[in-house]
Amino acid sequence: MLSRHVLLPPRLLIARRLIHSSRPHPTLRSFLDNSDEASQHSAYQYAHNHSQSEPPVLASIREAAVARDPTEAQKMVSPLQGAFMRHFVSIQRPKSVLELGSYIGYSTIWLAQGLQAIPGSTLCTCESDQTIAHIAEENVKLAGLADTVRVVNVPADLLLGEWDPNHKLDLVFIDANKSAYKRYYSMIINRDLLSENGQIIVDNVLFHGQVHTQATISNASNDDDGAKAARKAKGIARKMHSFNEFVAKDPRTTQVLLPIFDGLLLIQKAK
Ligand SMILES: C[S@@+](CC[C@H](N)C(=O)[O-])C[C@H]1O[C@@H](n2cnc3c(N)ncnc32)[C@H](O)[C@@H]1O
Question: CB count, 10 Å around CB of 211?
Fold first, then answer.
């Protein structure tokens, strides 16, 4: 007698195995999973070396930021992520882009460079810190992109609350206050700010690799090591998990969460 499995299409067989086995199917795993930090770094370097190279103006902005304050400079996307987002823009061809969280304009410039091939496209980026917003504006000018980019020194919630729903957004990059992602997302969707094929890219949704563990720890401890920074990171990770769950259950949108960079969530309206 034929086994029931033989009658199932291969895809269903794989799905079944995933449901019934605690071990992930090999195709769901990355070749990097079992490698040590050094080989992960060299794989990243290899990917970097074989991707669109970082334009000189961006390299000098990044290097100056790292020299000024290496810890703060970690707020910027990596050059590889910048190249990915520029590539994304060249495929999606958005006309109206909104970035929440400019910092000094590094990701802004990557995105805006992608927009140069799209006539009439604009990018608005917001930064709540006045001094930093000013630096972002200067960097945008330095990159020759002042005609495309508007830097506003306004908190993201305020900007979203006042955004004209008739001025639809084709692309939103969310990278501001990590604890407020659910609010940003809800404002965009509730106020119907996205165009029909609009996309949201959300950064840091796997926040330092701490988010997925929140999914399995029902009552995550708050005080194990006592370190303030570690507690803060855990708090952010918990909120990020709650955000990811919220989006995953929202029938108004579809999404794919990519375990690349610090975790990237791509969201669009449900079709
Ligand atoms: C991760 S950094 C952005 C990095 C930038 N997108 C890049 O990759 O080059 C987040 C920035 O958001 C700003 N920020 C924090 N809360 C904000 C808010 N409520 N509204 C706007 N900006 C905010 C912070 O001051 C910080 O500069």
Answer: 23
